[in-house]
Design a protein that fits this description.
Shape: elongated
Structural class: alpha+beta
Strand content: 35-45%
Helix content: 10-25%
Strand order of the largest sheet: 1-9-8-3-4-5
Oligomer: single chain
CATH topology of the domain at 30-124: Immunoglobulin-like
Largest sheet: 6 strands, mixed
Radius of gyration: 55 Å
Low-confidence stretches: 14-25, 361-370, 385-398
Length: 398
């Protein structure tokens, strides 16, 4: 009887323990998170359990090969290492990650039944350094240039942007192609534009943006070399050339290739006085000017692309005439004085006429009403009212 009771007690204990384990296992669930890593980097895969009663944890790869069972390594791969192993966590690292490592990894919690959690490992393909093709030096002014920028190995496909003088160019062509491994992409972009002399020495930049580059884009640069015909301008040393003084005419010429030594001519022919007109590099020095130097001087510059010229019309001024022009204008001053005198005389004449008209006729003190008149004008006014019944005595003054 005692043996039966002991057996029943042991059976109940086992059942209660099993129920306790089953109840406990219902609250356990492995927790994982997706991981993104750059190709060649290191990925950390972590599996956690909030509550665990010594139940084992396991990591397996997309091929369902066991990588780690608790702290025991199951797959011979030197890139895979244990980071941390406890009843609540199993973390492993995968170094030198390749594109083939991408996929879904599984963490298993060996309860009854077994519970799992998935973590997707995304591997970013790093784009190769871009290359610019299509430039052949030199390029002639006015030619149409086509530049192509290409980069391979990006995953997902990289973005290509063009810049010229630090200003982005939007009107470009873009092409994306899948690589042979069917995982990465080759992208290319083509830029078309017509060049001019202002493009000489300008840097055209191709920039590759991709999330694997950590906000540090890869760039390729092409410095343009444009050949163009010369541009010519003549600059005199003084704006008013004077007889007897020296004059220097400087011929400014720009072009690529650099123009050859310039050619000076006067009125379509050679310089008439080589002893007095000396050419030094791009300068024409006339040692002292005279009236015979008047004429059209021409500077001509030539390079392998073409020829250009500029003209300067020389007028030699008389120093005395220029001095007179720079002094006071006596004719102008005389004219002003004459006008002032004329206006003054006219004013005096008009004032005299005015006074004469008012003093021509007036009543004397003998006229009626003139006794109280203070002046001749008042006397005339007083006398007008009494002209009908009174005789007037008038005096005339000339």
């Amino acid at each position: 009887m005692i043996a039966i009771l002991t057996g029943v007690r042991w059976y109940l204990t086992v059942v209660l323990l099993y129920i306790s384990l089953m109840t406990s296992s219902q609250g356990q669930f492995p927790l994982t998170q997706n991981v993104t890593v750059v190709e060649g980097g290191t990925a950390i895969l972590t599996c956690r359990v909030d509550q665990n009663d010594n139940t084992s944890l396991q990591w397996s790869n997309p091929a369902q090969q066991t990588l780690y069972f608790d702290d025991k390594k199951a797959l011979r791969d030197n890139r895979i290492e244990l980071v941390r192993a406890s009843w609540h966590e199993l973390s492993i690292s995968v170094s030198d990650v390749s594109l083939s490592d991408e996929g879904q990894y599984t963490c298993s919690l060996f309860t009854m039944p077994v519970k799992t959690s998935k973590a997707y490992l995304t591997v970013l393909g790093v784009p190769e350094k871009p290359q610019i093709s299509g430039f052949s030096s030199p390029v002639m002014e006015g030619d149409l240039m086509q530049l192509t920028c290409k980069t391979s190995g990006s995953k997902p496909a990289a973005d290509i942007r063009w810049f010229k003088n630090d200003k982005e160019i939007k009107d470009v062509k873009y092409l994306k192609e899948e690589d042979a491994n069917r995982k990465t992409f080759t992208v290319s972009s083509t830029l078309d534009f017509r060049v001019d002399r202002s493009d000489d020495g300008v840097a055209v930049i191709c920039r590759v943006d991709h999330e694997s580059l950590n906000a540090t884009p890869q760039v390729a640069m092409q410095v343009l070399e444009i050949h163009y015909t010369p541009s010519v301008k003549i600059i005199p040393s003084t704006p008013f050339p004077q007889e007897g003084q020296p004059l220097i005419l400087t011929c400014e010429s720009k072009g690529k290739p650099l123009p050859e030594p310039v050619l000076w001519t006067k009125d379509g022919g050679e310089l008439p006085d080589p002893d007095r007109m000396v050419v030094s590099g791009r300068e024409l020095n006339i040692l002292f000017l005279n009236k015979t130097d008047n004429g059209t001087y021409r500077c001509e510059a030539t390079n392998t692309i073409g020829q250009s010229s500029a003209e300067y019309v020389l007028i030699v001024h008389d120093p005395n005439a220029l001095a007179g022009q720079n002094g006071p204008d006596h004719a102008l001053i005389g004219g002003i004085v004459a006008v002032v005198v004329f206006v003054t005389l006219c004013s005096i004449f008009l004032l005299g006429r005015y006074l004469a008209r008012h003093k021509g006729t007036y009543l004397t003190n003998e006229a009626k009403g003139a006794e109280d008149a203070p002046d001749a004008d008042t006397a005339i006014i007083n006398a007008e009212g009494s002209q009908v019944n009174a005789e007037e005595k008038k005096e005339y003054f000339i």
